[in-house]
Design goal:
- The chain is α/β, with parallel strands linked by helices.
- It has a single domain, classed as P-loop containing nucleotide triphosphate hydrolases (Rossmann fold), CATH 3.40.50.300.
- Helix content is 49%, strand content 14%.
- Strands 3-4-2-5-1-8 form a six-stranded mixed beta sheet, with helices on both faces. A two-stranded antiparallel sheet has the order 6-7.
- Strand 3 and strand 4 form a beta hairpin.
- The chain is globular.
Length: 226
């Protein structure tokens, strides 16, 4: 099998579950690291097995891969991302507001929307904020199965447009008036996703009809949204 030629800084591997996305992500990262590049592999799959494949315990921060120089990896954990985001929003008010008000704030940030968007926020930082991956020559995204990935790739445009068109009120990320920083980040993320000189998506499939159909459907949907 011939590995894909890497000509961009950002690389996504996506496809049906069980077709080998994680294996290809790790093999590509290893080849690049052995060629002298500094590489970060990021799993966006809530059911990630990147730890097992790399034989390295991973968290939400870049962790050196055991036995491989210049190769790092991390897992984006939706629940951890939501918990950390919730604490950042609530912590400044502890000891100031009544306990009932704190409980109400925690409730506001405990829904499925916050979980999804907080995890997406971590993804957007890795793609839209160059400083967050400044130590790496390549960032490889080992994605969840196709449906989840298509949603992930369209969220930057959706949320960027939502924030731009909303002048008040609140979202599951907090008051919209305070989301100007996210607006800039999401716009930068959209720009990088749409730039073929910076980002490439590799469709992974097995040699069977269902897998190839899924890859073709994904290609079509990505083409429509580009």
């Amino acid at each position: 099998m011939t590995a894909p030629q890497i000509v961009t800084r950002y690389l996504f591997f996506t496809g049906k579950g069980g077709v080998g996305k994680t294996s290809l992500s790790c093999a590509t990262g290893l080849a690049l690291a052995e060629a002298g590049r500094h590489v970060l592999i990021v799993s966006t799959d809530p059911a990630s097995n990147l730890d097992e494949v790399l034989e390295t315990p991973l968290g939400s921060y870049p962790t050196p891969v055991s036995g491989v120089d210049r190769l790092f990896a991390l897992n984006i954990d939706p629940e951890v991302s939501a918990r950390d985001y919730r604490e950042r929003m609530v912590a400044p008010y502890r000891g100031i507001l009544p306990a009932a008000a704190i409980a109400s704030m925690e409730e506001q940030f405990s829904g499925a929307c916050t979980v999804e968007i907080a995890a997406f926020d971590e993804f957007a930082k890795l793609l839209g904020d160059p400083a967050s991956t400044a130590d790496f020559d390549h960032v490889i995204f080992d994605t969840a199965p196709t449906g989840h990935t298509l949603r992930l790739l369209t969220l930057p445009s959706a949320w960027s447009g939502f924030i731009a068109s909303s002048t008040g009120g609140a979202s599951c990320l907090g008051p919209l008036a305070g989301l100007e920083k996210q607006k800039t980040l999401y716009a930068q993320t959209v720009a990088r996703l749409a730039d073929p000189t910076q980002t490439r998506v590799v469709l992974v499939a097995r040699a069977d009809t269902a897998s190839l159909r899924e890859a073709e459907r994904t290609r079509g949907e990505l083409g429509e949204r580009s």
